Q: What sequence folds into this?
């Protein structure tokens, strides 16, 4: 991809990674991703904001072929998909200074072995002049590492937000053209890496509220010319007001747990509760994470195997515990053969979740009438709890 023009002095560089299907060897990327770097040409100085993932270095270097001078390289976030090519940039432009926070400086030295004298560190709210353009650096910790900042280009009213407001999408469209598609990708991205830091992200959103933002340029995915769209979405996701939704990840070995889950789903729907159902044997973990953003209740369906929950169910519980969704209630349903500690084991795996645990429904072997009635009772309790709390 060639450098793409945002305006006469601001350019989007970087790489569209059409083929990438996994991030951090963990997170599914069904639509690929992009690593966006931004070049800003002031009347006196030129700045490069972030770089690209190291396998894409040659692409970025080709885009910089005709750029004779870079005065500042800015690292908004030390993770290597944005910082990994900084050493090559500093080699090509030996006079360039690397702007980061003091915390990021330490991380960049650890991760990339960049020498101390290359750095200029900036405090929260500090500005750097490029002549007729001014970059202001705003600390936005935990989106999603502790050192993360955003850059505000005052004259153009562009917010460069790195991972914040990003989405994993590979496309040749520089600007958002399909808000529905971007909403889905941005929510998935929020769920996978931002959700655990919901409270501090809320504060970061409040901190950015006074800025008259006209454009948000993240370092993954497309640029927002309608910033309200993504700002509103983020404000909703961090609101602390879950919706009238049950997320139900389950696994079944011999259909008994499946029968229970199907009956519970039907009972919940009958009582006006929406259900997001995930068969853990085939599910996309990113979709499950996304559903957890809004759910008021999580119900895990698992058979007892080897005296505890099925490993897939344990994985889902571990993931939910790490992502810290805003759900308020949790329960467990499933079938067992002769005994075990499924409930105790799963309950012990979710210390981070601030949930009320609703009476689990476990049955021996295939579920019978008594078990189906218990599942209907559980559905009634969930519907009532949602209604009492005003979750709609
Ligand atoms: Fe896109 Fe946290 O790196």
A:
């Amino acid at each position: 991809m060639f450098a793409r023009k945002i305006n006469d002095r601001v350019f989007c560089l970087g790489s569209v990674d059409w083929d990438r299907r996994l991030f951090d060897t963990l997170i599914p990327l069904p639509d690929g991703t992009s690593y966006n770097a931004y070049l800003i040409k002031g009347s006196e100085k030129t700045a490069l904001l972030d770089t690209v993932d190291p396998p894409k270095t040659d692409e970025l270097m080709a885009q910089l072929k005709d750029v004779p001078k870079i005065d500042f390289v800015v690292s908004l976030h030390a993770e290597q998909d944005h910082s990994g090519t900084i050493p090559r940039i500093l080699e090509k432009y030996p006079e360039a200074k690397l702007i980061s926070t003091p915390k990021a400086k330490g991380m960049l030295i650890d991760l990339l072995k960049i020498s101390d004298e290359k750095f200029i560190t900036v405090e929260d709210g500090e500005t750097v002049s490029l002549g007729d353009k001014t970059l202001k650096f705003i600390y936005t910790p935990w989106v999603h590492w502790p050192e993360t900042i955003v850059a505000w280009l005052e004259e153009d009213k562009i917010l460069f937000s790195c991972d914040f407001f990003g989405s994993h999408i590979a496309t040749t469209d520089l600007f958002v053209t399909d808000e529905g598609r971007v909403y889905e990708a941005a929510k998935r991205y929020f769920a996978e890496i931002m959700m655990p830091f919901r409270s501090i992200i809320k504060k970061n959103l409040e901190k950015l509220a006074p800025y008259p933002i006209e454009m948000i340029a993240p370092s993954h995915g497309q640029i927002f010319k309608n910033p309200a769209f993504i700002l509103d979405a983020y404000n909703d996701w961090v609101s602390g007001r879950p919706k009238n939704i049950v997320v139900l990840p389950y696994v079944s070995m011999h259909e008994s747990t499946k029968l229970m889950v199907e009956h519970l789903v039907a009972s919940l729907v009958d009582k006006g509760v929406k259900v997001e159902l995930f068969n853990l044997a085939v599910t996309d973990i990113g979709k499950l994470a996304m559903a957890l953003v809004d759910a008021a209740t999580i119900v895990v369906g698992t058979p007892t195997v080897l005296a505890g929950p099925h490993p897939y169910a344990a994985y889902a519980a571990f993931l939910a515990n790490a992502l810290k969704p805003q759900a308020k209630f949790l329960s467990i349903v499933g079938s067992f053969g002769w005994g075990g500690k499924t409930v105790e084991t799963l309950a012990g795996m979710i210390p981070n979740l601030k949930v009320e645990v609703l009476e689990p429904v476990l049955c021996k072997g295939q579920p019978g009438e008594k078990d189906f009635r218990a599942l209907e009772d559980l559905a009634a309790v969930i519907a009532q709890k949602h209604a009492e709390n005003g979750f709609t």
Observations:
- The two ends are 45 Å apart (CA to CA).
- The chain has a mean pLDDT of 96.
- Residues 369-388 form the longest helix (20 residues).
